[in-house]
Specification:
By secondary structure, the chain is α/β, with parallel strands linked by helices. It has nine helices and ten strands. The radius of gyration is 18 Å and the shape is globular. Bound molecules: adenosine-5'-diphosphate and magnesium ion. Adenosine-5'-diphosphate (ADP) binds next to strand 2 and helix 1. The site of adenosine-5'-diphosphate has 11 residues, from strand 2 and helix 1.
């Protein structure tokens, strides 16, 4: 069964239809890129999947279970984690402290004033494991605000990983980054996908990153799914070339 099923999902903001009748299945372990020009509805699509607001119509299923009306917090508990187009992290805390917040939240300890020795050990091992996965062990005790842009983004992805998600949604993880940092973040995403087997949905504007990483690509234009397929199929699709890739060159 598909991990995530999106069935005829739409979202209207007044008279603007930001996402228009999109149907899509995400298989376990796949890396799916969502591309399209600015304002195409990519972030709105992620907001619908992660439960920021309900769709105007349509259905979303995780593991066959209808989550269309589940809240964002409920979806996090069910295994959805996301990062945002604008980095959301606590710059005045260390990398480890940021990951600790996510780990404690994921393990249901965040609002507890007292943890047992075993619980503290479980949080510590989750933190260390996450630092290793994101290659941030050397940056663990540095303030996030003092890290490079690439390491900050890795730390933000690490906060999502500390939730041990079943699906990870990344909204423009290389936005505003230079060559070197884009390479670093793309490398982290590749490792998470290839080595750890994470299921990932990725909104990305850098076409080299998209065509290198994605198993399949969805193209949105004006909220509508223009095309869907392998990188090869998308590159060869005349409608995509005309509507999007041609203008991006
Ligand atoms: N909360 C909102 N209220 C009203 N309009 C919105 C809202 N969020 C997005 N939009 C509009 O929906 C369209 C799609 O936006 P967005 O999903 O951010 O596109 P993308 O991420 O592809 O650049 C845009 O026209 C945007 O102005
Ligand atoms: Mg966006």
């Amino acid at each position: 069964m598909s991990l995530l099923q999106i069935r005829g999902v739409s979202k209207a903001f007044g008279s603007l239809i930001a996402v228009n009748n999109v149907t899509l299945d995400i298989e376990p372990g796949e890396l799916r890129a969502v591309i399209g020009p600015n304002g195409a509805g990519k972030t709105t699509f992620f907001n619908l999947i992660t439960g920021f607001f309900p769709p105007t119509s349509g259905q979303i299923l995780l593991d066959g279970k209808d989550i269309t009306r589940a809240t964002a917090v409920e979806r996090i508990r069910m295994g959805m984690a996301r990062t945002f187009q604008i980095t959301q992290i606590f710059p005045e805390l260390t990398t480890r402290e940021n990951i600790q917040i996510a780990a404690e939240t994921a393990m249901g300890f965040r609002l507890r004033t007292w943890l047992s020795r075993a619980e503290r050990a479980a949080v510590s091992s989750r933190i260390e494991e996450t630092l290793v996965a994101a290659r941030l062990t050397e940056q663990a005790d540095r303030l996030v605000g003092e890290l490079s842009h690439g390491d900050q983004r890795s730390a933000e992805i690490a906060m999502a990983l500390a939730l041990k998600p079943r699906i990870l949604l990344l909204d423009e993880p290389t936005a505003g980054m230079g060559e070197q940092e884009t390479f670093q973040v793309a490398g982290l995403i590749r490792r998470l996908h290839k080595h750890t087997g994470y299921t990932i949905m990725l909104v990305e504007h850098d076409m080299r990153v998209v065509f290198n990483l994605a198993d399949r690509i969805v193209v949105l234009t004006e909220g509508t799914m223009l095309a869907e397929g392998t990188p090869r199929e998308i590159a060869d699709n005349p409608a995509v070339q005309a509507a999007y890739l041609g203008t991006a060159e």
